[in-house]
Amino acid sequence: MDRERNNIELDILITGGTLITMSEDMVIIEDPAVGIKDGKILFVEKREGQISEYRAKEILDASESIVMPGLINTHTHSPMVCFRGLADDLPLMEWLNDHIFPAELKYVNEDMVYNGSLLAIAEMILSGTTTFCDTYFYESSVAQAAVDSGMRAVPARGFMDSPTPGNPDPFRHTEIAGQFIERWADATPLISPALICHTPLTCSAETLRNIKNIARNSKLPFIIHLSETKDEVKIIEERYGLTPVSYLHSLGVLDDLTIAVHCVCLNGKDIDILADHGVKVSHNPESNMKLASGVAPIPKLLEKGVTVGLGTDGCASNNDLDMFMEMDTAAGIHKVAALDPTVMDAKTVLKMATSGGAKVLGLEDRIGSIEAGKCADIIILDMKKPHLTPLYNCYSQIVYSAEGHDVSTAIIDGKIVMKERHLLCMDIFDIMERVRKTADVISDSR
Amino acid sequence: MDRERNNIELDILITGGTLITMSEDMVIIEDPAVGIKDGKILFVEKREGQISEYRAKEILDASESIVMPGLINTHTHSPMVCFRGLADDLPLMEWLNDHIFPAELKYVNEDMVYNGSLLAIAEMILSGTTTFCDTYFYESSVAQAAVDSGMRAVPARGFMDSPTPGNPDPFRHTEIAGQFIERWADATPLISPALICHTPLTCSAETLRNIKNIARNSKLPFIIHLSETKDEVKIIEERYGLTPVSYLHSLGVLDDLTIAVHCVCLNGKDIDILADHGVKVSHNPESNMKLASGVAPIPKLLEKGVTVGLGTDGCASNNDLDMFMEMDTAAGIHKVAALDPTVMDAKTVLKMATSGGAKVLGLEDRIGSIEAGKCADIIILDMKKPHLTPLYNCYSQIVYSAEGHDVSTAIIDGKIVMKERHLLCMDIFDIMERVRKTADVISDSR
Question: Can you list the domains of chain B with their CATH numbers?
Answer without folding.
Answer: 4-69+367-423 (2.30.40.10), 71-360 (3.20.20.140)
